[in-house]
Design goal:
Number of helices: 10
Order of helices and strands: EHEHEHHEHEEHEEEHEEHEHH
Distance between the termini: 40 Å
CATH class of the domain at 2-157 and 186-219 and 266-283: Alpha Beta
Bound molecules: NADPH dihydro-nicotinamide-adenine-dinucleotide phosphate
Strand content: 15-25%
CATH superfamily of the domain at 2-157 and 186-219 and 266-283: NAD(P)-binding Rossmann-like Domain
Strand order of the largest sheet: 2-1-3-4-5-10
Length: about 300
């Protein structure tokens, strides 16, 4: 079986290279040049790639994820997040392939405190959220076989992430201000990649599972509590933390304005994913602890 993976060097794409490998031959592409075009700015090149590879499964982990930059780079964000996924869906339909795609909590307006369900009304606040939603809708309306995993607060051990930044700042500064009125579940790229591989296997046996699923680690936290969790772990591990007890200050998002508004409520209800695919999603703390342990042991 051939699997065509786009965005191989991203957080999720990198982990997918690992998790998809046992399923078949993975043709993994990035936006750079090579034997096949993996650059979403070149839609004709992407169509040619799908036709030449003739995959059973297309996995799209590529996206324009620079949320603030997207506010002033609308055309490219739309090409990568909406037009390219729409094209992949058309090509998938033509060759009978599955399309696996990732969506975001940013498609919601972030109101309320309930967990968002797949059927809830969307209302993106940012260019990133709008363009991602346009991509989701195009895939759903294309008539191809698809799985869309809508996730939140993705982190990976590789590259930078919120936990690593907090760990560094806590060693450098006496005081830290962290947003305390945005809620979600930090979700490991590793977990998403494993869930993807599991679901693909079931989808190949049961095509009726085609659909949109919320996929995030279990539980909920704020950025502030997430930071406190990371710093407390580091302290217990014996790392020299400069931020004193009580010097981690909760602040509202309004005190830290950014070009792209973020949803306050990013809680995702994952019941549909867990029951359809017979999965248990672990608590967000377990993946974060694992990542922190790896970072600290490597030092
Ligand atoms: P990353 O930002 O880590 O990776 C994105 C990938 O997209 C990069 O490898 C990049 O490749 C690629 N890419 C960007 N522009 C282009 C382009 N023009 N052509 C081809 N590839 C391109 O993203 P994540 O792994 O974190 O995200 C994976 C998915 O999860 C995305 O769909 C994202 O929207 C979604 N998501 C992410 C969240 C998060 O917190 N990060 C939260 C919710 C959903 P290159 O470097 O080669 O340009």
């Amino acid at each position: 079986m051939k699997i065509l993976l786009f965005g191989r060097n991203g957080q999720v794409g990198w982990e997918l290279q690992r998790s998809l490998a046992p399923l078949g031959e993975v043709v993994a592409l990035d936006s750079g040049s090579g034997e096949f075009c993996g650059n979403f700015s070149n839609l004709e090149g992407i169509a040619q790639t799908v036709r030449r590879v003739a995959p059973t499964i297309i996995v799209n982990a590529a996206a324009y994820t620079a949320v603030d930059k997207a506010e002033n780079d609308i055309e490219l964000a739309r090409t990568v997040n909406a037009l390219a996924p729409a094209l992949l869906a058309q090509e998938a339909k033509q060759c009978g392939a599955w399309l696996i795609h990732y969506s975001t909590d940013y498609v919601f307006d972030g109101s309320g405190t309930d967990s968002w369900q797949e059927t809830d009304a969307t209302g993106p606040l940012s260019v990133y959220g709008k363009t991602k939603l346009e991509g989701d809708v195009a895939i759903i309306e294309s008539g191809c076989k698809y799985l869309i995993f809508r996730t939140s607060w993705v982190y990976a051990a590789r590259g930078g992430n919120f936990a690593k930044t907090m760990l560094r700042l806590a060693q450098e500064r006496d005081q830290l201000n962290v947003i305390n009125d945005q809620f979600g579940a930090p979700t490991g790229a590793e977990l998403l990649a494993d869930v993807t591989a599991h679901c693909i296997q079931q989808a190949l046996r049961q095509p009726e599972v085609c659909g949109l699923y919320h996929a995030a680690a279990d539980g909920v936290t704020s950025w502030y509590d997430y930071a406190a969790f990371v710093i407390e772990f580091a302290r217990q591990t014996g790392i020299d933390i400069k931020v004193g007890q009580g010097a981690l200050k909760p602040i509202p998002a309004s005190a830290y304005p950014l070009p792209a508004p973020r949803p306050g409520n990013s809680r995702l209800d994952t019941h549909k994913l867990q029951t359809t695919f017979n999965l248990t999603l672990p608590k967000w703390q377990s993946g974060v602890l694992r990542m922190l342990t790896e970072i600290i042991e490597r030092k």
